[in-house]
């Protein structure tokens, strides 16, 4: 393989050097493995942020063209850490969570519940439903396995929900 940037799905900051060694965001993976051990998750923050902004901008422009706003969600089920949730929030995305644990991660990251966390789960308990509705400012969503995937939403009486999209 020739030296240079690698194609998708690699981050835009992933490069294979002339000696075949890979680096991500300017960090040599051999050095990272020596310091941190393997296996390791390696995230390119600049690439994540760039893609988040691109998704948000594309959806905002598309919905603005039809006279509407839109909320764009990062799908926490892809990978949810405190850092990732914070990056998503800082780039203007909301964070979609599917459990009380994921909701706790987003809240710890400083993602404000009323404006940024949407919770969906297949088997909510009464306490987890109350917790997610309280954290999200009165809006939560559950999916019941008994109802073949139908979705029910609990929303505040005031205000009409904006369209949303998970990226």
TrEMBL record:
- List cofactor names only: pyridoxal 5'-phosphate
Q: PROSITE patterns of this UniProt entry?
A: ODR_DC_2_1 (PS00878)
Task: Look up keyword Lyase and say if it applies.
Answer: yes
* Region annotated Disordered, chain positions: 110-167
Q: Compositional bias of type Low complexity: which residue ranges? A: 112-167
Record keywords: Acyltransferase included? no
Supply the Gene3D superfamilies for this chain. Alanine racemase, Lyase, Ornithine Decarboxylase, Chain A, domain 1
**Domain named Orn/DAP/Arg decarboxylase 2 N-terminal: which ranges?**
53-114
| Alphabetically ordered keywords of this record | Decarboxylase, Lyase, Pyridoxal phosphate
Q: Which Pfam families match?
A: Orn_Arg_deC_N
**This protein's superkingdom?**
Bacteria
Q: Quote the PANTHER family the UniProt record gives.
A: DIAMINOPIMELATE DECARBOXYLASE, GROUP IV DECARBOXYLASE
Name of this protein: Orn/DAP/Arg decarboxylase 2 N-terminal domain-containing protein
Q: Which organism is it from?
A: Luteimicrobium album
């Amino acid at each position: 393989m020739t030296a240079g940037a690698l194609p998708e799905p690699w981050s835009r900051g992933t490069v294979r050097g002339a000696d075949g060694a890979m680096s991500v965001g300017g960090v040599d993976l051999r050095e990272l493995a020596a310091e941190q051990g393997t296996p390791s998750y390696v995230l390119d923050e600049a690439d994540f942020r760039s893609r988040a902004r691109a998704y948000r901008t594309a959806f905002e422009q598309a919905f603005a063209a039809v006279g509407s706003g839109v909320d764009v969600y990062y799908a926490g089920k892809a990978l949810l850490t405190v850092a990732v949730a914070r990056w998503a929030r800082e780039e203007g995305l909301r964070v979609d969570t599917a459990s009380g644990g994921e909701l706790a991660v987003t809240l710890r990251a400083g993602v404000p519940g009323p404006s940024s966390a949407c919770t969906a789960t297949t088997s909510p308990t009464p306490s987890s439903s109350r917790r997610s509705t309280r954290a999200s400012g009165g809006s939560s969503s559950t999916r019941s396995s008994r109802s073949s995937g139908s979705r029910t939403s609990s929303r505040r009486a005031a205000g009409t929900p904006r369209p949303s999209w998970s990226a």
